[in-house]
Amino acid sequence: MSPLPSRRQPEELIDLSVSRRCHVVGIGGPGMSPLASLLAARGHQVSGSDMRDSEVIEILRHEGVAVSLGHSATAVHGADVVTFSTAIPASNSELVEAGTRGIPLRHRSGLLASLCAITESIGVAGTHGKTTTTALLTHILVTAGRDPSCIVGGQVGGMPVGARHGNGPLFVLECDESDGTLDVLPLENLIITNIDVDHLDYFGSFEQVQLCFVDAAQRTSGYVVANADDLLSRPVIEALAAQKRLRTFGRASASDVRIDAVTPTTDGIEISLHIDGQNTMCVSPLRGDHNAMNIAAAVAMATGLGVDANTACSAVASFSGVARRFTERGDFGGALLIDDYAHLPAEIEAAIAAASSHPSRTGRTIAVFQPNRFHRIAAMADSYADCFGEADIVVVTDVYASGTAFIEGVTGELVVNAIRATHPAAHVVWAPTRQDIVDFVAETIQSGDVCISMGCGDIETFPDDLQKAGQ
Question: Measured at the alpha carbon of residue 330, what is the angle toward residues 325 and 333, in degrees to the nearest 5?
Answer without folding.
Answer: 135
